[in-house]
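Entry:
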Amino acid sequence: MEITDTYKLIQKLCQIRKDRIELRRGSQIEVYRETAIYAYRRVYGENQTLVVLNNSPSQQSRTITLPDSFAPGTVLTNLLNTEERITVGQDRTIQVTLAPREGKIYAKL
């Protein structure tokens, strides 16, 4: 049986959900919304994860302002590609770029 890219993605998503209690039990709070980009965070106690989704057929870049719970200087890692990291700016913003129909899951590790 060949393991497809879709299978590998689903496997990775299941592992991320298993590892992060806020993704299983946390509240969902909208952070950013427009036609092409949607971002929300899942929060459970002190644990929080930020999910950013691109619903567009083209690449999208945005500056997103985060709530106070994301302190300036916090480094967030994309759990789908742990080599990708972003740092929360002094004004609590992040710069994100997503490929067409891409999603990213950011968390402090």
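The helical segments are 5-19, 21-25.
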